[in-house]
Amino acid sequence: MTRGIGWYVHHQGAGHLQRARAVAGALPRPCTILGTLAGFDTAGLDVVDLPDDRPLGAAAFDGRDGEAERPQALHYAPLNHPGIRARMARIAAWAERTDPALLVVDVSVEVALLARLLSVPTLVVRLAGTRTDRPHLDAFRSATRLLAPFPAALDGSSVPDWVRAKTLYAGFLGAPAQGLTEGSRDIVVVFGRGGTGGSLADLAAAARAVPDRPWHVLGPVSGSGETPDNLHLHGWVPDVEARVAQAALLVGGGGDGVVALAAAQAKRFLCLPEERAYGEQTEKAEALARLGAAIVHPGWPPASAWPGLIRDGLALDPAVIGALHDPDAVRGCAAAIEALVWHL
């Protein structure tokens, strides 16, 4: 009987589940998705739903436990949390029952180290940014290989050589390409699920600063007030890719989802990286700027800066960012995972 693999997804949003689903569909062996999956579309997937391990009663979760003392190899190990106890027990029971050939860990230092203790080989997902703290490096050492869900050209300059050598650079996973649309004058602004969303006052000021172009905003926007005629707020939409295809210029943060979308559609891109742990967005944005793949401005620009930023963004060669998209990334990642399993 063919041994299957597991793909662990943590509380990072739909993007992690999206890439797990994409790669699982291309694998020649069974794949089980493990995670806290309530609220996500898991139709057609083999899943192990895990108890929630986030802080009890907490409104937000940054992956740390706030404990004064904990083992230095861990980020999150609070005491007396029944969800964590049940979660880890369920992962261990699944591993004992199924004898997996590999566990992809996307992402959790603690699950990576648990898998090592369970004698299960791991492929640990390495996100962008400077992750040279003790827990991350111990998780990387524990892994058989590392998986970067972005192109090597976007990796940070401070990543240790041994980490790079251990990394499979899979490229952007799960971002479909669209046909190019010529002649549009639209500015499309995308706010993803991982950020705080947009401010109506800021958006209105930007639209007034560039009044000769339609502005279309996708994602959450807070605040109230007068909206200029050229500003259109669409909220959450099911056809983000199709709407981005209409853009003359894409505006968004430095998260993997938006950057992958810009690359897949070869869209001129104004990148506004947000503050994230480990410099995840800022380091990626700096790489985009070095390559000439995007115009970068840290955070939301003042109204006076918008005319120049739009002008510079429209002057970009979209082929540069388009070259970061690999249409075979999902199949290539699945093939690399299969090859890794065969060599274990």
Question: What is the gist of this entry?
Answer:
This protein has 344 residues and is an alpha/beta fold. The protein has helices at residues 14-26, 82-98, 109-117, 134-142, 161-165, 200-209, 240-244, 256-264, 280-291, 306-314, 318-322, 329-342; strands at 5-9, 31-35, 46-49, 102-106, 122-125, 145-148, 167-169, 186-190, 198-199, 215-218, 221-222, 231-235, 247-252, 269-271, 295-296.
Can you characterise this structure?
The protein is α/β, with parallel strands linked by helices and 344 residues long. 34% of the residues lie in helices and 17% in strands. The chain has twelve helices and 15 strands. The chain has helices at residues 14-26, 82-98, 109-117, 134-142, 161-165, 200-209, 240-244, 256-264, 280-291, 306-314, 318-322, 329-342, and strands spanning 5-9, 31-35, 46-49, 102-106, 122-125, 145-148, 167-169, 186-190, 198-199, 215-218, 221-222, 231-235, 247-252, 269-271, 295-296. Strands 3-2-1-4-5-6-7 form a seven-stranded parallel sheet, with helices on both faces. Strands 12-10-8-13-14-15 form a six-stranded parallel sheet, sandwiched between helices. Helix 1 (14-26) packs across helix 12 and helix 3 (109-117) runs parallel beside helix 4 (134-142). The longest helix is centred in the first third of the chain and has 17 residues, at 82-98. It starts with a strand and ends with a helix.
What would the keywords be for this entry?
six-stranded parallel beta sheet, seven-stranded parallel beta sheet, 344 residues, alpha/beta
